[in-house]
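Just wondering, does anyone understand these tokens?
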Amino acid sequence: MSEYSIPDDSLYTEQDEWIRQDGEKVYVGITDFAQQQLGDIVFVELPAVGSTINKDETYGVIESVKAVSDLYAPVTGTVLAVNGELADGPERINEDCYGDGWLLEIEPSHEDEQDTLLNCVAYKKSIDERDA
């Protein structure tokens, strides 16, 4: 079983995405577990700035040498920014998924949606159950 970084300053989804609160906005990305499972990431398709994404619905695609996977919104909100650095350097996700490899900056529409997300302990348990 591999070891995965799971920072305690973020919340997580069962679809292996993280969000981190920063004032009124949140940053979104995929977890260390997800990027390790995908392997070398070669392409990311993200929504346009200003678009609305809805919790649990697809908002983009991530492609690696192994697979193509949908990205699912951890919360409903308006896309304030996308990580433009990923267009020419999608490998940033593999190198620093919780930092330079972030995907979106969102202004959440419903604060209570974050109550449904997993803390680091619950997310680790979720991974352990899948790895078993």
